[in-house]
Amino acid sequence: METIEQLLESKDIRVTAMRLLIYKFLAEKEVAVTLSDIENAFEKADRTTLYRTIKTFEEKDIVHQIDDGTGITKYALCEQGCSCNIKTDLHLHFHCTNCGETVCLTDHKIPQIKVPEGFISENVNLVVKGICDKCSG
Amino acid sequence: METIEQLLESKDIRVTAMRLLIYKFLAEKEVAVTLSDIENAFEKADRTTLYRTIKTFEEKDIVHQIDDGTGITKYALCEQGCSCNIKTDLHLHFHCTNCGETVCLTDHKIPQIKVPEGFISENVNLVVKGICDKCSG
DNA sequence: GTTAATAATGCACTTCTGTTGCATCCCTTT
DNA sequence: AAAGGGATGCAACAGAAGTGCATTATTAAC
């Protein structure tokens, strides 16, 4: 099994204590988190560091950004073999309007969307809003 | 043909000079606009007024809000018979990563999306990103 | 192992969007 | 003409996002 250190190194990310902690935090969460979620979890650390760490993770394709319509950007770890940097095979996200949580529905692929003549589709963002399984039960 | 005054009145919106101007501005635009777009077009008017005018239009269902993933909320006039307030018949939006413009593809309906057991879908936001017809030509 | 270079972190500050409270103005109705 | 209610304008605030620079830590070179 691959350690987190190995994973980061394989993605050209220098390993630091901070980055390991942030990675672990993201791995423990099953839902997408905002920057302030991370901020609250690491009150000792500076906001800028957290911000730039996430940006680094994003550039190196180990987290992907989610825009769930709340106006606040959320982030989640890419799955093993996540192809969020590839344009065609995107999963969708579910935003619960009750608890506010956003989860990746990695099993549910986005159907092919037709666009009019002249338009070139490169990426699709699909967010379903409603009530999640925890809140509907 | 219905005048703008009649339209506003039919939606319980009091007609003012400002509101007529903002409505006309939205009608002329073929793309979704941000609040600062409107701000730039009406430099004499106060930001708050424009903000609240749009909010009023939104409440009364003559504009709909678009979240195209840029992080900035955009607005567009609802089409004749627009059902954006109804949960099922939503059109999709196209965001051009070249010119930054976002257009409503009102003819293109969103396919039914399956969600896992326990999840209740109430609303779907679908934004296709890529190159628009003007930029690809 | 010390030093030089490079990257990471922390602090301060700025910008932008969105929002609210309050005073004032304008229009409508009586 | 006066009163009431909504519209407008001003000020101010909150939160997210982002940048510049100094400082610290890590790696690489000698």
From TrEMBL, chains A, B:
GO terms for biological process: negative regulation of DNA-templated transcription; regulation of secondary metabolite biosynthetic process. Its cofactor is Zn(2+). It comes from the Bacteria. The keyword Transcription applies. The keyword Metal-binding applies. GO terms for molecular function: DNA-binding transcription factor activity; transcription cis-regulatory region binding; zinc ion binding. InterPro entries: FUR (IPR002481), Fur_C (IPR043135), WH-like_DNA-bd_sf (IPR036388), WH_DNA-bd_sf (IPR036390). Keywords: DNA-binding, Metal-binding, Repressor, Transcription, Transcription regulation, Zinc. Binds 1 zinc ion per subunit. Zn(2+) binds at C96, C99, C132, C135. PANTHER family: HYDROGEN PEROXIDE SENSITIVE REPRESSOR, ZINC UPTAKE REGULATION PROTEIN. Belongs to the Fur family. This is Transcriptional repressor.
